[in-house]
Amino acid sequence: MADRSLRGMRLGTQSLQSEVGVEFSPRQKSVYRAADGTEFEVVFAADAEVPQQWESPKTGQEGILVGSDGEPVILDTADVKVPRSHWDMLLERRTRAELEELLQERLDYLRSRRGQEKIGA
Predict the structure, then answer these.
(1) Which CATH superfamily is domain 27-66 in?
(2) What are the extents of the domains in the chain?
(3) DSSP for 34-55?
């Protein structure tokens, strides 16, 4: 085995794949302007929903979406559905007084079991 050596490319430095025949997905550039006046571009997929604000990768400031005319773009957020939290769903099923009563019952139960350990029940 010592008389044979492996020949070929160096590992990890070059790819054997080429971009021939590869079709990239359509993209769109969006321009954002930070509060200090600096502008930066962000590339999104053509079918992606472009956000109103984006953080600048260089300065970390929030940028506002700017249209091709240089004016800030106001996106329509009327159709956006606000996500419900677990608390909101609880309040749909029970009143706050009922929830406080259930909490108190559960706390009393847990406090009564505090000194009792069940081994192999």
Answers:
(1) RNA polymerase-binding protein A (2.20.28.270)
(2) 27-66, 81-114
(3) ETTS-EEEEEEETTSPPPSEEE
How far apart are the C-alpha atoms of 56 and 118, rounded to whole Å? Answer: 56
Distance separating alpha carbons of residues 52 and 42, to the nearest angstrom = 12
Q: Which residue has the tokens 């007084």?
A: 97
Of the chain, the percentage scoring pLDDT greater than 90 comes to: 44
Residue for token pair 């091709």: 68
Residue 73: the pLDDT is 83
Distance CA 69, CA 59 (A): 24
pLDDT at 40: 93
Find, among 44, 43, 66, the residue nearest to 53 by Cα: 66
**What spatial distance separates the first Cα and last Cα of the chain, rounded to whole Å?**
64
pLDDT tens digits, one per residue of 5-42? 656 666 666 777 778 888 889 999 999 999 898 999 99
- Fill in the amino acid letter for 21: G
Residue 114 has pLDDT above 70, yes or no: yes
Q: Which residue type, as a one-letter code, is found at position 54?
A: W
